[in-house]
Design goal:
Strand order of the largest sheet of chain A: 1-2
Number of domains of chain A: 2
Helix content of chain A: over 70%
Radius of gyration of chain A: 25 Å
Oligomer: homodimer
Low-confidence stretches of chain A: 1-27, 59-63, 212-225, 255-271, 466-490
Distance between the termini of chain A: 21 Å
Number of helices of chain A: 21
Amino acid sequence: MSGPRTPELALGGQGASSTGSQDEDTADGIQSSHRMLSFSDALLSIIATVMILPVTHTEISPEQEFDKSVQKLLATRIAVYLMTFLIVTVAWAAHTRLFQVVGKIDDTLALLNLACMMSITFLPFTALIVVYAFHRPHLLSPQIERSAHRALYRQHILGIVLRGPALCLAAAGFSLFFYPVSYLLMATVIFLPYVSKVAGWCRARLVGPREPPAHSLEIFTFDLHEPLSKERVEAFSDGVYAIVATLLILDIWNLRTSEARPFSEDNVPDSEDVKAKFHGSLVAALGASGPHFLAYFGSFATVGLLWFAHHSLFLHIRKATQPMGLLNTLSLAFVGGLPLAYQQTSAFARRPHDELESVRVSCAIIFFASIFQFAIWTTALLQEGETLQPSVRFGGQEHAFMFAKLTLYPGASLLAFACTCVLSSFSTAIFHAMQIAVPFTFLLLRLLVRLALAGLRGLRGLRGPARPTHTRPVPGATDDAQSPLLPAPC
Amino acid sequence: MSGPRTPELALGGQGASSTGSQDEDTADGIQSSHRMLSFSDALLSIIATVMILPVTHTEISPEQEFDKSVQKLLATRIAVYLMTFLIVTVAWAAHTRLFQVVGKIDDTLALLNLACMMSITFLPFTALIVVYAFHRPHLLSPQIERSAHRALYRQHILGIVLRGPALCLAAAGFSLFFYPVSYLLMATVIFLPYVSKVAGWCRARLVGPREPPAHSLEIFTFDLHEPLSKERVEAFSDGVYAIVATLLILDIWNLRTSEARPFSEDNVPDSEDVKAKFHGSLVAALGASGPHFLAYFGSFATVGLLWFAHHSLFLHIRKATQPMGLLNTLSLAFVGGLPLAYQQTSAFARRPHDELESVRVSCAIIFFASIFQFAIWTTALLQEGETLQPSVRFGGQEHAFMFAKLTLYPGASLLAFACTCVLSSFSTAIFHAMQIAVPFTFLLLRLLVRLALAGLRGLRGLRGPARPTHTRPVPGATDDAQSPLLPAPC
């Protein structure tokens, strides 16, 4: 959603392109682009996440063992999944940049955007969009429409949106005869923004800044070094979490059919399964395939709570910088791996001797998905003045609570992993206990944090601002807390 | 998205619950609910749509013929799909109602909502949400928080959110020993709003209105007879279109693996397939599986353009009434069937002798998906004063253009269907020609409509307001068209 969904967006610079376009006429079909952008976000996030399916279905056939060769195959698939996920994310980021420049759309532009979505490498159509939008300047964001350097902008944004696809094309070419180069090129695509950032920094050091400052400040509005628009980051993340949660349902259904007979025309069980799920006769459904549903609910709870942590985090983030965007992408990539975790844990019924590996893989996936969320927050804390709401900064009233929220899953998964090393025979029990315990911890978290803070307040004399994450809580100051949601003028 | 994404929402009554909650404090974790709602919309739409997969996979096994028995099985599956889709939509509608009452959320409520999503029959948790929200009145929408009849509201909304799940549970019970009754009950669930509307109307006729008018006006804000919140309808529809578009990609991948060996551990082709798609070497990919990709692009274009028509339509809709919501649901249900159309057309390579049935099924699906969109518009035109922007009302400058947009797909699919009846041997060619021709028609549509209107203006003397859809066009009146986007005080 690029439309202003919260007041700070309406005021903040990110929403400018869309807020500027909303009191426009719809005659001649000039429209605000927010819904098209939300649709694109959903599409791209789903496409990126669906690529985990080859990995999960590696495990699906019942007769197959979890031996070294499969692990190797699995590893390569996971590498491919991660790379494709990251590349789709790069394409999405380029799309975000593009529509920070193109403020409004008309029908032609909407159709071109659909063509973009269809051929996921944006190569031909993003160029067309840029050309078309600059051909009809009233579609551009007002700031650029009014500017004198439009041609410069045009070549700049063309470079931004074409670099990635061009490299991908080159990689595809190389992949036909020499793989390593194509992998290298794809890695370049993924880390291009950071490469270009460094390159720009070096250029600035050697030959000085390319533009006069006042002008480069204009360019800043769609430069790759500019923070991503927060609401589109949220939309993309929501899409990933939603499709991951749905893949769990898909997997239940796949498992049941693949156990009976792989995709024969007679997989009536799943339509009954569907009915069972939708009529609420959960007892019968659980009776039919108990471990699957236990694993499903466990994994769904994990996805849901990771989304919940992400939601609480971005509720307090004012704008997402480049590094935060990268960390968010990595976190999402591991979230996309959760169907794999589900697959593994639900496979216990068939392959009890693989419990240990499965539980460890699951714990690792959950740990990385959540630790990257925590990393987003710590990165934000480094520039807390511009990135965070006051209430979660060092010493803010929500600071300790946010800290607890974001450390819960890394801690729990790490603990579970450690326990499996000690009590390897109870690994499944440990894992399910973790999955069941964490939600309740979340429910009681505020209470627990309050207790911890009360205890720590007694010891405040001993612990100074050296431990800022637990000091100076201001519980229950709800009256003067209107301010946190309102953005500082940035 | 329950947040105000467009000005008319910020002003209109629908967005009131969320706009009221946005300048609130985040201390004690009281949050605006817009992102949680968008996430729920995405999740529910994906879950509803994914239920088409059992139907599509009926066709997947290559050795199987498209004979009568399969058609029968397919028919029953489609019935099940439609019913589950409609039931999920009912659950989504209840969720919308609920969060028209609950304006703000805190962490507990967010977690309860996640539990709702997990157990898709909302039975236990919606009740919990209602109880909790009324236990903490500051979470309620301000209007209800201030009201004196809170207990009444509570029982009213409890009734609304519990009726459906209770009936589903009863249906599940019956399904264990006697099917027809459960189908009947599920039908009741789907059409409950309309039943209750009629019942309420009758009651009002017999014993007079239950509430004093001033009070029933308050209840109206979350009554089932109140229009759905337009932005949540849009979000739900976007989710459906996005997941359908993605299922097409999934199907490519499924087809390839199922042709090789169904879900064995060695489906490396798809990871290559993925690479092919993501590196842009589309030529190689097409060479590998030509008809699949042709059918994929055709179906993707269809999904995208149906979304485009939906987007243009709702851009001009001010609020969505109950019948429009039902028609939108039916349209979406058929959109969800498009992967089936894709499955059929892409199966030509394997079963050429089924071309005719396949093409006809595809044309029928596209026709119904688009004709229900058209029905939304005609229904809106019946109350155009409150439902439509002035520019698309009878005689509005966009009216003829919108008419053309919404009649394009019904006309094209109907034409294709008719052609297949005449030239049955060229059915595939006809279908693909239709799929290729329509996008270009969309691109040239504005031009074509202008030409048609120019021609009609010459004949205006002959045709009076009896043919309002083509009369009194006001082309190029872009200055005074600011007003259409601003809502009339309703």
